[in-house]
Amino acid sequence: MSTHENATDDTTDFGFERVKTEEKAGRVREVFDSVAARYDLMNDLMSGGLHRLWKRFTIELSAVRPGQTVLDIAGGTGDLAAKFSKLVGKDGSVILADINSSMLSVGRDRLIDKGALNNISVVQADAQYLPFEDSSIDCITIAFGLRNVTDKAKALASMNRVLKPGGRLLVLEFSKPVSPLLSKIYDTYSFSALPAMGKIITNDSDSYRYLAESIRKHPDQQTLLEMVEDAGFVDCRYHNMTGGIVAVHRGIKG
Amino acid sequence: MQHDPAVIAGVCLVAETAIMRAVDLSTGTRNELQGLHPLTIAISCSSPEIDLYISTDAEGAISVASYREGAATVTLEGSWKDFVGIASAEDPASALINGNIKISGDTVPLMQLQSVMADLDVDWEAPLAETLGPVVGHQLATVIRAITRTSRTTHQRLKRQLSEFILEEGRLSPPKAEQNAFFSAVDDLVLRVDRADSRLKRIKKRLTALNGLSE
């Protein structure tokens, strides 16, 4: 296990709580089962629509071309998959993967409504044990999903395995604000306003408290960069967005 | 200075949405844009330091991005002021060629794109009719059209009258013909002064020579 990982032999973080390693996936599933139906609405409200811009920049960084195969892990409601579907065209394919069936179900319905399922397959999969052949994917994205994975190092290694040589990994995730003032404002916002909004919109403040806590427990920019490098990726770098509230890490399979 | 990618992504999103809204309301423009595919224009702005990429796709859509890999069809490099100058020029094509912007790559598709965008014929009555219904939408469009026409005519008339006032009534600035006559008189005077100066020099030279002989 990586030294960066917060899991010990039999316990790991679940927000600020310590839970048994084998319990985390189930607890995370409960959170997303609860928020799945209104996940996109909550994302818009929580981020003031900024998550669309963060994802847009991530898609630009992917440099995906027609004919390629893209795997969107923790793809949830399928917003990235829909965009990739257009970019890869009819000769390419997009795999929308998520460990949570409720999120996938919402995602699949949305994609059907958009008429975007032609080149998209929907797969329920755990990021730590990706059920794909070695060196079969051109680009992997995981947006706001890595912090919920029990063993991040294992998940990154699994992503490295399925990527083609030269393939690209993009991890979009909450990170650490670079300014102390912004950090203070952000803390107040996420521990007060976020659960309150969760209570109003999804009648579930606990899930949104977990989201805020899990963001704080997630590795900062530099630590995650080292984790990506440790997983075997080369030419790794990250871009801070919105003052470091969010960062997108990029790594290339060597 | 490093700009926040989310901010630039927002600018790109707004620009792309506005362009595509206009394109979709202009009949035939998508077909023309399809004909330009594949086209990527890289705009490299030095101050502030921003890179933008405008591309067309096979469906005739235009995308605006802040990051792109691969070679661009044409690259434009300059400062923000240079680009604003082109955007606000009456003849952007001529301003682009004669301005400070460094152009590299194939400029033909760039000119074709400029021509397509200049020929945009936006049917903005369509979204009004879609939202408000055909009767109210059309009535409102007629009113807006009349207001726009009146404003444009008033603007042109004011511009002309202001120019006439400055030149004719107020005599605040001389007319062009008067300016030209003045400049030509100044040029003539300069020539005469030059001639007089060379004559004086010649006379001075002769006098010096005569003085030398008499001594």
Query: CATH top level of the largest domain in chain B?
Result: Alpha Beta
Percent in helix of chain A: 40-55%
Order of helices and strands of chain B: HHEEEEHHEHHHH
CATH architecture of the largest domain in chain B: 2-Layer Sandwich
Strand-residue fraction of chain A? 15-25%
Could you describe the largest sheet of chain B, including whether it forms a barrel? 5 strands, mixed
Strand elements of chain B, count: 5
Uncertain regions spanning at least 5 consecutive residues of chain A: 1-5
Q: Main sheet of chain A?
A: 7 strands, mixed
List unreliable stretches of 5+ residues of chain B: none
Task: Indicate the CATH architecture of chain A.
Answer: 3-Layer(aba) Sandwich
N/C terminus separation of chain A: 21 Å
Q: What would the CATH topology of the largest domain in chain B be?
A: Nonspecific Lipid-transfer Protein, Chain A
Q: In words, what does this structure look like?
A:
Chain A has 254 residues and is of the alpha/beta class. Chain A has one domain: Rossmann fold (3-Layer(aba) Sandwich). Helix content of chain A is 46%, strand content 24%. In chain A, the strands form 2 sheets. Chain A has a 7-stranded mixed β-sheet with strand order 5-4-3-6-7-9-8, sandwiched between helices. In chain A, a hairpin with a 4-residue loop joins strand 8 and strand 9. Chain A is globular and about 45 Å long. Chain A starts with 10 loop residues before the first strand and ends with a strand. The N terminus of chain A is likely disordered. Helices cover 64% and strands 12% of the residues of chain B. Chain B has 8 helices and 5 strands, in the order H-H-E-E-E-E-H-H-E-H-H-H-H. In chain B, strand 2 and strand 3 form a beta hairpin. In chain B, strands 3-2-1-4-5 form a 5-stranded mixed β-sheet. The longest helix of chain B is centred in the C-terminal third of the chain and has 39 residues. The N and C termini of chain B lie far apart (78 Å). Chain B has 215 residues and is of the alpha+beta class. Chain B folds into 2 domains: 114 residues, SCP2 sterol-binding domain (Nonspecific Lipid-transfer Protein, Chain A, 2-Layer Sandwich); 49 residues. The model of chain B has no long low-confidence stretch (mean pLDDT 87). In chain B, helix 2 runs antiparallel to helix 5, helix 3 runs antiparallel to helix 4 and helix 6 runs antiparallel to helix 7. The chains are: A alpha/beta (254), B alpha+beta (215). The interface between A and B is medium-sized, with 17 and 16 residues.
